[in-house]
Write a structure and sequence with these properties.
Bound molecules: flavin-adenine dinucleotide, (2R)-2-hydroxypentanedioic acid, zinc ion
Protein name: D-2-hydroxyglutarate dehydrogenase
Structural class: alpha+beta
CATH class of the largest domain: Alpha Beta
Helix content: 25-40%
Strand order of the largest sheet: 13-10-12-11-15-16-14
Distance between the termini: 30 Å
Number of domains: 4
GO cellular component, one term: mitochondrion
GO molecular function: (R)-2-hydroxyglutarate dehydrogenase activity; FAD binding
CATH architecture of the largest domain: 2-Layer Sandwich
Number of helices: 18
Family: Belongs to the FAD-binding oxidoreductase/transferase type 4 family.
Keywords: FAD, Flavoprotein, Oxidoreductase
Strand content: 15-25%
């Protein structure tokens, strides 16, 4: 693989010795100090099998106090650390680059409290998103975020990446729904910001620093989050559009006509659909096999079945008459709704199965978004399968380039072009996945130098020795020289 950033191990970090291992065993007990090769191989490898570290140690704390003791010790010994949740991150942020100690959060998986009146959930960071979704479902509530990786990703990882996902268009980002956090700093200090209040203007709202900081400023140990009530009228439609302009107009119409019941607006191009149909088992095209260029998944969620259905049907008839959609199907039951969703959520997995994949997660003005996909196709010709899909409702394109294997020539055709294009259109080079290792050095395409310098000062203040997730997020020159 040619994609791993070429970075040098920071020589100020120590290497593990047997005293360190004994110390950790003293804190965590034998069982939760893992040196097993097989488990380390898994922890050293990211979801795409693109980034690989060589850590010799994985620690599994069961409490905030244990996390605190781990970090306090690592800080005093100059041992670098990678916080790891479900390891579903897509930017090489969740695995070690060299021999960093992995702090795995999966044993901190308890729900602490749930308030049925306010809908406020407080839980430990290692709770798997899908388990929280199921827990809340039983209480008549939902999580305000959902993503294809729900079966493995953890709420602490979601918060640390500020994950967006499939319902952001309705419920907003985690900066709005997360009400509080408990975080352990690099020196082991525990910051209790675990508020459960919707409103609290007492000074700087520091939890926001940790939302989206990708484990570079602290380890998130507990999360308090506002969850919406579960509404029972859910409809999912899978639609075909002839051109990108129609998708765009459909979005504008959907926002106006479906308004408050709109809960997702996702799109994929025919290349993405073909990949899913060819690489995932049991997937069927919900529409007759005519070639359409684009597909849109619309979900509505509301409280009145008859009303909501009528509203959606009227919207679709109107869109069909206006030529915005060329075909479409509304799910007739929950199984069909899941099948429609599976097509959209299955795109990353289908791409994985198809070979090597270069992933770009961009915020762009909706009008311009697909121009980039077209331009990339022209640039790469037949040498690659260029795929566009994503959260159209949020202006978030997932541009993926699929090739048989990674090679420097393809990479040189994609980058820096893709970043320059995004920057020229005042977009973001990371809409929702973060910077990790992959884009740490690319931050300047989306942030001015003065902002990056302030970020580096904050990092220096909170983690003076730079032990937390080194080589990630901030440019390497700043990270290692300051
Ligand atoms: P990890 O991958 O383990 O870690 C991610 C980052 O967070 C790393 O930098 C890590 O160091 C840090 N971290 C993890 N836990 C903690 C903690 N407790 N404290 C401090 N730092 C921590 N992302 C989206 O935004 N939207 C999507 O729709 C989406 N869909 C996806 C679909 C698939 C199939 C896959 C594989 C990934 C998808 N992702 C998506 C990316 C990824 O799932 C998210 O970034 C997710 O939030 C990561 O959670 P995780 O627990 O797996 O974290
Ligand atoms: C999605 O929306 C995820 O499916 C993954 O954010 C996107 O793999 C990708 O590029
Ligand atoms: Zn996404």
């Amino acid at each position: 693989g040619s994609l791993a950033e070429k970075v040098q191990r920071n020589a100020s970090f120590s290497t593990l010795n047997s005293d360190d291992i004994s110390h950790f065993k003293g804190i965590l007990g034998e069982k939760n100090v893992v040196e097993d090769e097989e488990r380390l191989t898994i922890a050293n490898t990211d979801w795409m099998h693109k980034y690989r570290g060589s850590s010799k140690l994985l620690l599994q704390p069961r409490s905030t106090e244990e996390v605190s003791q781990i970090l306090k010790y690592c800080n005093s010994r100059n041992l670098a650390v990678v916080p790891q949740g479900g390891n579903t991150g897509l930017v090489g942020g969740s695995v070690p680059v060299f021999d960093e100690v992995v702090v795995n959060m999966s044993l901190m998986n308890n729900v602490i409290s749930f308030d049925k009146v306010s809908g406020i959930l407080v839980c430990e960071a290692g709770c798997i998103l899908e388990n929280l979704i199921t827990f809340l479902d039983n209480q008549g509530f939902i999580m305000p975020l959902d993503l294809g990786a729900k079966g493995s990703c953890q709420i602490g990882g979601n918060v640390s990446t500020n994950a967006g996902g499939l319902r952001l268009v309705r419920y907003g980002s985690l900066h709005g729904t997360v009400l509080g956090l408990e975080v352990v700093l690099a020196n082991g200090d525990v910051l209790d910001m675990l508020g459960t209040l919707r409103k609290d203007n007492t000074g700087y709202d520091l939890k926001h620093l940790f939302i989206g900081s990708e484990g570079s400023l602290g380890i998130v140990t507990k999360v308090s989050i506002l969850t919406p009530p579960k509404l029972f009228s859910v409809n999912v439609a899978f639609l075909a559009c002839q051109d990108y302009f129609s998708c765009q107009k459909l979005l504008v119409e959907a926002k106006r006509k479906l308004g408050e019941i709109l809960s997702a607006f996702e799109f994929l191009d025919s290349h993405a659909l073909d990949l899913v149909l060819n690489h995932l088992d049991g997937v069927r095209n919900p529409l007759p096999p005519t070639i359409h260029n684009f597909y849109v998944l619309i979900e509505t969620t509301g409280s009145d079945e008859t009303c909501d259905r009528e509203k959606l049907e009227a919207f679709l008839v109107h869109a069909m008459e206006g030529g915005l959609i060329s075909d479409g199907a509304i799910a007739q039951d929950i199984n069909q709704a899941s099948a429609f969703w599976y097509i959209r959520e299955g795109v990353p997995e289908a791409l994985m199965k198809a070979g090597a994949v270069y992933k770009y997660d961009l915020s762009l003005p909706v009008e311009k978004m697909y121009d980039l996909v077209d331009e990339m196709r022209t640039r790469l010709g037949d040498s690659a399968n260029v795929v566009g899909y994503g959260h159209l409702g949020d202006g978030n394109l997932h541009l993926n380039v699929s090739t048989p294997q990674y090679d420097d020539k393809t990479l040189a055709q994609i980058e820096p072009f893709v970043y320059e294009w995004t920057s020229a259109h005042r977009g973001s080079i990371s809409a929702e996945h973060g910077l990790g290792l992959m884009k740490a050095n690319k931050i300047f395409y989306s942030k001015p130098t003065a902002t990056v310098n302030l970020m580096a000062s904050i990092k220096k203040m909170l983690d003076p020795k730079g032990i937390l997730n080194p080589y990630k997020v901030l440019p390497h020159s700043i990270d290692s020289h300051s």
